[in-house]
Design a protein that fits this description.
- Strand 2 and strand 3 form a beta hairpin.
- The chain is built from 10 helices and 14 strands.
- The chain folds into 2 domains: about 160 residues, Periplasmic binding protein-like II (D-Maltodextrin-Binding Protein, domain 2), CATH 3.40.190.10; about 100 residues, Periplasmic binding protein-like II (D-Maltodextrin-Binding Protein, domain 2), CATH 3.40.190.
- It is globular.
- With about 300 residues, the protein is an alpha/beta fold.
- Strands 8, 9, 10, 11, 12 and 13 form a 6-stranded mixed sheet that branches. Strands 5-1-6 form a 3-stranded parallel sheet.
């Protein structure tokens, strides 16, 4: 009996050490950043103004500026330089890149959903928008219902909420005949298809559509239409079970909001003289006020 008890106790003891890497033995991201002096951040390359290449070939955007603020906070925490390694991600691989440890965080236009939170963690929501449509200025399309009937609608792969919303229009019978969903790897490809008449409308979040329109050769040739089909709170994608890293990112977001630094970065990209003029909605302002957590 004593021998059996000893064997069981030994197995239990060893199990505390020989668990899967993504459990007790998982590398602590914040600790590794401090040791290596490097942080790997995933950004989009074709999502204006969140992350994109400008006319000079420079990788810029709202998300990248927010990422740089996190690097500043890391430098202050560890008291030494922290090198930012920028890694390109796409809507259909950004979660996988976090899961396989290719990036420590992905910052972009990623909507927080309960389904996604089964795989990864998210920061506090730091952006609020919703799905609308981009169409030609002369298009008769004014809204999702009933104007998308028998139309070809572009959607980016990996944009789960928008894809589900378009599918719902068809399955619920709101749009008859059904619209045809056309998937693209990047927003830039979808806008090109819209320009060439391959699709009748492009559906994604309003802030992304505003960027596409603003950067078009003739912005007046396009218009954004339709009431919000969805509400999309954006969060930064983070690995699960890394509470120290998540808490650090969240604290940085809160400090940026309370110091009004966040507002300045927003105005740089979305203000009246920004790359993509898009006034901050009252609901978005309310969200930021709620996030102003006391010290």
């Amino acid at each position: 009996m004593k021998k059996y008890f000893f064997i069981v106790l030994t197995v239990v003891f060893l199990s505390l050490f020989f668990v899967k890497p993504d459990q007790a033995c998982a590398e602590r991201v914040l600790e590794r950043i401090g040791k290596t002096g490097e942080v790997r951040m995933g950004f989009r390359e074709g999502s204006i103004p969140f992350g994109y290449k400008n006319a000079k070939g420079q990788w810029v955007g709202f998300s990248i500026d927010i990422g740089k603020e996190i690097v500043v906070a890391l430098k202050q925490k560890f008291g030494k330089p922290i090198r930012l390694i920028k890694i390109p991600v796409k809507p259909d691989n950004r979660i996988a890149m976090v899961l396989n440890n290719s990036v420590d965080i992905s910052i972009g236009s990623a909507t927080i959903t309960l389904e996604r939170e089964k795989k990864v963690d998210f920061s506090h929501p730091y952006f609020l928008t919703g799905a609308r449509l981009l169409v030609a200025a002369q298009s008769p399309i004014r809204n999702f219902i009933p104007d998308l009937a028998d139309k070809r609608v572009g959607v980016v792969r990996g944009a789960t909420g928008n894809i589900v919303a378009i599918d719902w229009l068809n399955t619920s019978g709101r749009v008859q005949p059904k619209c045809q969903k056309v998937l693209f790897d990047e927003h830039i490809q979808g806008f090109k298809a819209l320009q060439q008449g391959e699709i009748n409308a492009y559906c994604t979040d309003e802030c992304i559509l505003a960027g596409m329109k603003a950067k078009a050769s003739d912005p007046r040739a396009w218009k954004i239409v339709g009431s919000y089909l969805t509400y999309e709170p954006y969060g930064m994608i983070l690995p699960q079970d890394q509470s120290e890293w998540r808490n650090f990112v969240n604290a940085t977001i809160v400090k940026l909001i309370k110091s009004r630094r966040f507002e300045k970065i927003y105005d740089k990209w979305f203000g009246p003289y920004g790359e993509v003029p898009l006034p901050m909605s009252n609901k978005y302002k309310t969200l930021l006020n709620i996030l102003s957590i006391p010290d």
